[in-house]
Amino acid sequence: MSVFNFHNKTFYLVENSKNGKVNADTVFNYQQEDNIVTANYSGGTVKHGKIIATLDNDILHMLYQCVTLENELKAGKATAKISFTKSNKMLLKLNRQWLTGKLEKGVSEYIEK
To answer: How many CA atoms lie within 13 A of 8 on its CB side?
Structure first.
C-alpha cells in the first residue's frame, strides 16, 4: 500500500516553466484506484484537460492532454516526484515534455489544496 493517496485530492500550480500551458487559475481534481491515478483539470488557460498516470512508490508516470482557450490541442508526458510539505500536503515536482508542437521540455511544481 502506498503512502500517497490522490483520491479526491485537488492540486494547484506553484511554479511552471515558460513553455507550460497551465497557470495559477488551473485546478486539478485527482482520483485514484490502486496504482492508477487520473485527473481532470481546467481553468485559467485550459478549457479541459485529462491526466492518466501510474503510481510507482514516490513517482507518478504521467500522460496528459488538454485543449487550451485558443483551441490548441496539446499532449505531453511527465515524471512526477512526490513528497510531503511540512504541513503534510503532497507536493509534485514534474519533469515534463510536450509530445505535440516543438516537443519542448520543462519543469512544473504543484501542491495539494
So the answer is: 0
Q: Is residue 60 part of a domain?
A: yes
Number of domains, the chain: 1
- Dump pLDDT digits (tens) for 41-63: 999 999 999 999 999 999 999 99
Overall size of the chain counted in residues:
113
Four-point Cα dihedral 54, 87, 112, 107, nearest 10: -70
2 inside domain: no
Q: Quote the pTM value.
A: 0.94
Residue 101 lies in a domain: yes
Give the Cβ contact number of residue 33 at 10 Å: 9
Residue 15 has pLDDT above 60, yes or no: yes
d(CA 28, CA 1): 23
Residue 103: give its domain's CATH number.
2.40.128.30
